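Sequence, please.
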C-alpha cells in the first residue's frame, strides 16, 4: 500500500482548527493557549505525528532514494547483498543510503529515524541481533511505508521477505560432517531469537536425529552479537574445548561466527581439521585461500539483494495498495573443501 504520513492538515481537520493554529501549537508558540496545545499534542500523538520523530519527518514527496540497514558492511555476506541491491536500484534511478546497526537495537532505531528524516521512499532491512521491540518498524508499516525484510526477517509484519532455506543449508552442512565420520558435533550460532538462528539450529538438530544422535544443549553455544565480538566467540570455543568428551567438529551458522571460530581455534593451537573439523555458513572468498580450507554453506547473497530490491520497488511504485506479499526462499550451496582427508567412519 502507498505510504501517507499524518499531516498538520489531518490534525487540523480532526480538531476543527486552522492549520496555522496546529502548526503554532506544535511549535509551542506563546500565541496558543495551554489547553489548545495539549489538545493538539494529544491528537498528534494518536496519529503518530508527534512525538514520534519518524512520522514527524517523513514527507509525502518522493525522493528517489531507498534505505538499507545491515549489521555490518564488512561482513562478506552483507557486502555481496548490497552489491545486488545497488545493481537494481541504480538501474531504476534510485540512490541507496546504507547504514550499519552493529548488532545494536538502539543504533538501529536511531538509523530508522535518520533515514526517515532523509525522506527515503522505502527500506530494506536485516534486523540486528538485539532487535526484539518492533514498535518503530510496526509504526512505519502501519502508515504504509514500504519495507522489505531480507535474511533476518520479522514474521509478524506482513510485507515482502527474502531469505535462504536456512533449515536445509544447516541440515546439509551437518549431514556432510556426519558423512565424514564426525559424531559429536557442536554448534556455534547467533542470538537465540533471530529467525536465522531458529531455522539453522533446527536443521542441525534434524541432521543429528537422522543419524540417531541426540543433540546436547551444552554443545549449542549462542553468541548474542553474532560474531561481532571476537571475545564472545572465543569464550564459546573455549567452553567447547573444555567439554568432556570434547566435540570432534563444529558447525557455525554465519559468516562472522565461522571466521571468528577459525581465529579462536588457531589461537588455542587447535588444528583444523586434524584435531577438530569446522563447517559453517560463509560467503568469504578468503576461505578458499586458507592452508586448510573448510567446507562452507554459500548463500546467494547478490541474488538476495537483487530480489529484495525488486520487491521493494514494486511496493514503492505501485499505484494501488499492495495486500498480497511474497516470501522468497532461495537455495544455499554446499561448497566442499578440496583434499581434506575424511575421518574414519563411525568414530565415537
Amino acid at each position: 500500500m502507498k505510504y501517507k504520513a499524518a499531516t498538520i492538515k489531518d490534525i487540523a481537520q480532526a480538531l476543527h482548527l486552522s492549520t496555522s493554529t496546529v502548526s503554532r501549537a506544535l511549535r509551542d508558540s506563546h500565541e496558543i493557549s495551554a489547553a489548545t496545545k495539549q489538545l493538539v499534542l494529544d491528537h498528534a500523538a494518536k496519529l503518530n505525528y508527534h512525538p514520534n520523530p519518524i512520522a514527524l519527518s517523513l514527507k509525502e514527496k518522493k525522493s528517489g532514494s531507498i534505505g538499507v540497514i545491515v549489521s555490518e558492511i564488512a561482513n562478506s555476506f552483507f557486502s555481496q547483498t548490497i552489491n545486488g541491491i545497488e545493481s537494481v536500484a541504480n538501474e531504476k534511478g534510485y540512490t541507496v543510503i546504507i547504514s550499519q546497526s552493529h548488532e545494536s537495537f538502539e543504533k538501529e532505531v536511531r538509523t530508522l529515524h535518520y533515514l526517515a528524516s532523509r525522506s527515503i521512499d522505502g527500506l530494506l532491512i536485516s534486523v540486528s541481533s538485539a532487535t526484539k521491540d518492533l514498535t518503530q518498524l510496526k509504526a512505519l508499516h502501519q502508515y504504509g511505508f514500504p519495507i522489505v525484510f531480507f535474511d533476518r526477517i520479522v514474521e509478524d509484519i506482513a510485507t515482502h521477505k527474502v531469505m535462504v532455506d536456512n533449515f536445509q543449508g544447516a541440515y546439509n552442512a551437518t549431514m556432510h560432517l556426519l558423512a565424514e565420520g564426525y559424531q559429536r558435533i557442536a554448534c556455534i550460532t547467533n542470538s537465540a531469537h533471530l529467525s536465522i538462528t531458529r531455522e539453522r539450529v533446527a536443521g542441525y538438530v534434524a541432521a543429528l536425529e537422522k543419524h540417531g544422535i541426540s543433540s546436547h544443549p551444552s554443545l549449542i553455544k549462542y553468541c548474542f552479537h553474532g560474531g561481532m565480538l571476537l571475545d564472545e566467540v572465543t569464550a564459546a570455543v573455549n567452553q567447547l574445548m573444555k567439554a568432556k568428551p570434547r566435540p570432534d567438529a563444529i558447525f557455525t551458522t554465519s559468516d562472522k561466527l565461522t571466521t571468528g571460530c577459525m581465529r579462536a581455534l588457531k589461537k588455542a593451537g587447535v588444528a583444523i581439521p586434524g584435531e577438530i573439523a569446522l563447517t559453517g555458513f560463509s560467503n568469504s572468498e578468503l576461505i578458499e585461500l586458507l592452508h586448510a580450507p573448510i567446507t562452507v554453506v554459500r548463500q546467494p547473497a547478490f541474488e538476495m539483494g537483487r530480489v529484495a530490491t525488486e520487491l521493494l520497488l514494486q511496493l514503492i511504485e505501485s499505484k494501488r495498495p499492495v495486500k498480497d506479499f511474497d516470501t522468497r526462499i532461495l537455495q544455499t550451496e554446499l561448497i566442499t573443501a578440496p583434499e581434506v582427508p575424511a575421518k574414519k567412519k563411525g568414530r565415537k
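Confidence is low (pLDDT under 50) at residues 50-60, 340-348.
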